[in-house]
Amino acid sequence: MKLTNKKQNRKNLKFAILATDVVIFSIRENILNVLLIEINIPPYYKNIYGVPGGLILPEETAEDSVYGHMKNKAGIKNIDIEQLYTFSSVDRDPRGRVVSVAYFGLTTTVETSSSAKVYWKDVKKLPKLAYDHKGIIKKALERLKAKVGYTTIIKGLLPKEFTLSDLQTAYEVVLNKKFDKRNFRKKMLSFGFLKTAGAKQTGVANRPADLYKFSVGSTQTFDIFRS
Amino acid sequence: MKLTNKKQNRKNLKFAILATDVVIFSIRENILNVLLIEINIPPYYKNIYGVPGGLILPEETAEDSVYGHMKNKAGIKNIDIEQLYTFSSVDRDPRGRVVSVAYFGLTTTVETSSSAKVYWKDVKKLPKLAYDHKGIIKKALERLKAKVGYTTIIKGLLPKEFTLSDLQTAYEVVLNKKFDKRNFRKKMLSFGFLKTAGAKQTGVANRPADLYKFSVGSTQTFDIFRS
DNA sequence: GCAAAAGTGTTCTTTATACACCCATGT
DNA sequence: ACATGGGTGTATAAAGAACACTTTTGC
């Protein structure tokens, strides 16, 4: 962090533009989806998509910036995000040096009330993407898979109240792996981070399931799944 | 990552200076130490220490930058580092906006062949530090503790060949926790990431221990310690 | 021969896995 | 009455934890 103290040099040190990008995951129809947004930067990019993002302003932290861009460009607010990685390849933006601090977040909010072209896409069937966004999504997915194994982060993919089957499906979709129903339930309830919501499902054409909610506020660490 | 395409605006977007900081850990006399370097930025900082770091240059990635600063300022080279977190608080540097991409690394190289004032310090007895470096070290330590539990990262704290007692001590020092010798050895050998080096300790005033080395090159994930 | 760390097995407890049937509701 | 997903227990296997003595070397 040492930098020269000569004021006349400071201008030359400000060579890079700072940006943020955010990978937002959501489960739709039992498939893990990522939020994409149209990128239109002629002559470099047209008819192409990428993850939402944008500039960091002088008076903002990276995190402030992400919240603003999520809201303005994708209509997504009130979701928890966490820092993923900072991408600093010299040529990652065709217009010049742009260093991006990437974040990732989870949501159940499927509505994307925004004027921009925004859509959800199966993470396994991504189209060609702008910039290094494919690599950013790949890294976010790795992080998500790792974190569901030792934290309660899965909470972000579920509504406030959910059934144990919903919870199981969420894990199965993220980890791409099936679990035994009885063992799954035993294990989940043993952790103590769930409590019954005191109600049952309604309007289903089968026996209604008990509803549960998380009894912990923020993401906590547990030993959830090992492999 | 969308940014305005108007060239005349791009200069105003370059408001921040980019820097890297690196937290280097090493075990010395059964204590986890961190490498500190004198920070001298009058009138803001004098007689104060912090972790090594410095500017990112226009043609460098953050990672390139860290390797350069580690070598030039602390005389440390040939160590593996990984990205830790990007610190972007607006006021973290008294001279203006500096966004720092922080890294952390492990080493056994205790010699710090450098002209700058560089020294190793017990992570539990840190003095007052410049900038937000105390927070950076705290985050690095959390990451290190987490990663020894599910990767072979501990390798970075050990010489090429080491005894099982050395390995146990390394885990104990990092996790601040004692292990049972027999159970520890059984478990470590069961993973298969160790192999005998075919030699024994020499010059010790007790029964010489077998030497081992890691049979894996880079850091790999295993289920090493749960709690 | 003594001090110092190395090396080594067994028992018990806890956790994980495999597995199949009846239940409550909507249509 | 039937189709659909909900809800439950037990037996076996695997992993983790607790625990003490003999061995090899330098001095």
Tell me what the structure shows.
Chain A is α+β, with helices and mostly antiparallel strands and 227 residues long. Chain A is 26% helix and 29% strand. The first copy, chain A, has 5 helices and 9 strands; from the N terminus they run αββββαβββαααββ. In chain A, strands 1, 2, 3, 4, 5, 6 and 7 form a 7-stranded mixed beta sheet that branches. In chain A, strands 8-9 form a two-stranded antiparallel ribbon. The first copy, chain A, is elongated. The relative contact order of chain A is 0.16. About 2% of the residues of chain A have low confidence. At the A-B interface, strand 1, strand 4, helix 2, strand 5 and strand 6 of A face strand 1, strand 4, helix 2, strand 5 and strand 6 of B.
What is the secondary structure topology, with strand pairs?
The structure is a homodimer of 227-residue chains.
Chain A: H1 7-13, E1 17-28, E2 31-41, E3 45-50, E4 53-55, H2 62-74, E5 81-87, E6 98-106, E7 118-122, H3 133-148, H4 164-175, H5 181-191, E8 194-200, E9 210-214
Parallel strand pairs in A: 1-6
Antiparallel strand pairs in A: 1-2, 1-4, 2-3, 2-7, 5-6, 8-9
The structure holds a DNA duplex (27 and 27 nucleotides).
Question: Can you give keywords for this protein?
Answer:
elongated, alpha+beta, 26% helix, 227 residues, two-stranded antiparallel sheet, seven-stranded mixed sheet, homodimer, DNA-binding
Low-confidence runs of chain A: 4-8
Which range best describes the helical content of chain A: under 10%, 10-25%, 25-40%, 40-55%, 55-70% or over 70%?
25-40%
Distance between the termini of chain A: 39 Å
- What's the SSE pattern of chain A? HEEEEHEEEHHHEE
Please tell me what the overall shape of chain A is.
elongated
Q: Can you summarize the main beta sheet of chain A?
A: 7 strands, mixed
The gyration radius over C-alpha positions of chain A equals 20 Å
Task: Assess the beta-strand content of chain A as a share of residues.
Answer: 25-35%
- How would you state the average pLDDT of chain A, rounded? 92
Oligomer: homodimer
